[in-house]
Design a protein that fits this description.
By secondary structure, the protein is mainly α. The protein is built from 3 helices and 2 strands, in the order ββααα. Strands 1-2 form a two-stranded antiparallel ribbon. The N terminus is likely disordered.
Length: 126
């Protein structure tokens, strides 16, 4: 075990404790020393490209962006069309359900007072 930054306790096979003194430059022993700092590394100058190549790359990027926007807009249109179709189907289904229902009109409103509560819950006004 470590007692301090400099002294290390170790046990031998005989059971006696010995104290070894180790001087560290760093307290973090497991880290390796770097050979040189990043500011000391000399890097080569970047190769300069011509104006025509820059313009060509710019045009390619613009074309890619336009294509991506076009694809996104097509997806949005498809999703919108699908949503409208689902909405129309739902509306048509509700209309068909109303057509096939058996409806009985209540002309005498005094009957409503005699009806039980459970039956009142099932009555709909249109």
């Amino acid at each position: 075990g470590i007692i301090s930054d400099k002294a290390v306790v170790s046990t031998q096979s005989t059971g006696k404790f010995t104290v070894e003194l180790r001087l560290y430059l760093k307290s973090k022993v497991w880290k390796q020393k770097k050979e040189c700092k990043t500011s000391g590394i000399i890097s080569d100058k970047a190769v300069k490209s011509s104006f025509d190549k820059k313009m060509q790359l710019k045009q390619q990027k613009q074309n890619i962006k336009e294509l991506a926007n076009q694809i996104l807009s097509e997806r949005a249109e498809k999703a919108e069309a699908k949503r409208k179709q689902i909405e129309a189907n739902k509306k048509r289904r509700e209309e068909n359900e109303r057509k096939c229902e058996i409806v009985q009109t209540i002309t005498n409103t005094k009957k409503l007072k005699k009806i039980k509560k459970k039956q009142l819950r099932s009555i709909e006004t249109r």
